[in-house]
## 1
Amino acid sequence: MGKPVKGKRGFESEGKGIGGQARTIGAKFPPEIDAILRSLPQVLGITTAEYVRNAVITQLKNDGLLSKKPEDKGTGT
């Protein structure tokens, strides 16, 4: 998680390469999966958001919807 920012609501970015144009998407999970996701910071040392973000990016690449080349930032077109 980022550092608290005095006088602002929220946290300072840790530089995940997302930028200021990032949008939020929410998802609901069954209790068993929710518990696993919430344990990730203690178990793996990464945030739940980072884990889910990486999983979605991996799936988009596997489905051919996002380029697999690290230097490409757009879709797989």
## 2
Amino acid sequence: MKLENRRNPVAAIYHYRRFLELSPESKEAATVEQLIVTAEREIIRKLPGEPYVEHLEALRLREENSRLKRELADMRV
């Protein structure tokens, strides 16, 4: 994730999701999905106290899903 996006991960998520809305079939879509997961983790990391385990598991599953989508897309090419 770029440095400027690390400073404001909420704004980064907004823009990444907007990109996906406008270009859902883009070859960068899987990468952008991964950037969303990274930004979400950055938000959680900044929260006080222990992060919610269930939310972290959901993020892990989303990351795995994105990875599998990328692998599937690569196999189709």
## 3
Amino acid sequence: MIAAGLADIHDENLASLTFWVDALLIFVGAVFLLGIAKFIGRKKK
């Protein structure tokens, strides 16, 4: 919602903005998967 508003203001920044959003999502996803892996690892012991 905020990202869409920023994109409307600066169309030329849309590419870099989506890049950072994608990078953030990938980073959060990786951390989330690592957390699940550690949680499962603890349960098995």
